[in-house]
Amino acid sequence: MTTVLTGITTNGSPHLGNYVGAMRPAIELSKKSESYIFLADYHSLIKQQSPELTHQSTLSIAAAWIACGLDIENTIFYRQSSIPQIMELNWILTSITPKGLMNRAHAYKAIQDSNRGQDKDKNVQMGLFNYPILMSSDILIFNADLIPVGSDQKQHIEMTRDIANKFNSTYGSFFNLPEPLISERTSYLPGLDGNKMSKSYSNFIDLFSEEKRLQKQINKIKTDSREPGEEKPRNSTLYKYFECFSNAARIKEIDNCFRDGMAWGDLKKQLFNLINNELAPARNKYIELINNPKKVEDILQEGEAKAIKVASKNLSEIRSLVGIRPL
Ligand code: TRP
Questions:
Q1: How many separate domains does the chain show?
Q2: Does residue 21 line the site of ligand 1, with CB under 6 A?
Q3: Strand partners, 196
């Protein structure tokens, strides 16, 4: 049976891009495979250092997964930081990972490029440099096979395979080589400006804001100056949004609206209804959970107990392979 694993970094509240790109497909997959879904809270410490934000974001992202219908009975749902075996594996893998492999990471290279003319490593913490090794540890500790991620994470999965290969050839075969599952067309939602939706670009739509704010944010999706009555382009950001929230029959109707030149403003009203109908039930559940953190804590602790069982069994075999075992 395929083991699916994915995580979201806890550095903000969840946005609509997280939902379409990661949460909705992972919840679908979890109905037919063994799934590990986790909150990458140690990864978040690299991106921002606000204790309040990390704490709050852990609650809101966990509550969002549950509210969106994650089947917590059949999924292993946990915080990265609650599984100490991940950190132990992180060191074992750090010890055999070539520095040159990390030098080639896109995120690290992008910062180095932006530092041209200054110290190349300005604003680079060791955590950022080692990021792909921690991500490999997240995946390899459970020997996961399939990793649903955005295309920006593809290189990290390739690095995970390289690191797994290095371990297997050094110490004996233990790790599976995981495959990325890159979002399909209907699971990539661009930001308001048409670029990748991201907290860092401030071009996101909150997953669970109240209706008025949702409508306001949808109104900010970038369009062009085409007038009512003029045909609207199918390669527009707005059309992409419709694709992510419509079934086949619905998208045909929308297609007609675009062809017949419905006004951008009216199209946005339609889009609001579509998104709001999909999210409204989950929104209520989300608010209930946010106001009852103890319930979320209990659900996570249950998942963590299950995760630790698998992780500690795997880690003891891994330790034994590297020569760390009882005398
Ligand atoms: N790096 C991922 C992101 O930024 C989050 C993440 C951390 C992750 N560890 C993971 C995703 C392991 C998949 C598997 O989106």
A1: 2
A2: no
A3: 190
